[in-house]
Write a structure and sequence with these properties.
This protein is mainly α and 78 residues long. It is 63% helix and 0% strand. The longest helix has 22 residues. The chain starts with 14 loop residues before the first helix and ends with a helix.
Length: 78
């Protein structure tokens, strides 16, 4: 490991890269904005929102949850 914390094959990889990837994956897994803020040690919501990227997978998950809500409502009305 060199003075920058690099091991063989990890040149150009920085702590911030790992932090960003980890927080992005946490957000994609459904972590709330408040939990991301706590995880990162931020008081400002804008910092946490950076990690909550819109994605096709997120859009699909939202659509499925909304559809389930509508289905539940319709079942309750019968």
């Amino acid at each position: 490991m060199d003075s920058h914390g690099h091991e063989d094959g990890a040149q150009g990889l920085h702590f911030h890269d790992l932090r960003h990837a980890g927080n992005t994956w946490a957000a994609q897994a459904g972590t709330s904005t408040r939990d991301l803020m706590t995880r990162m040690g931020h008081d400002d919501m804008r910092a946490a929102l950076i990690y909550q990227h819109a994605s096709k997978e997120a859009d699909q998950a939202i659509a499925e949850r909304l559809s389930a809500c509508v289905d539940s409502y319709r079942e309750a009305q019968r």
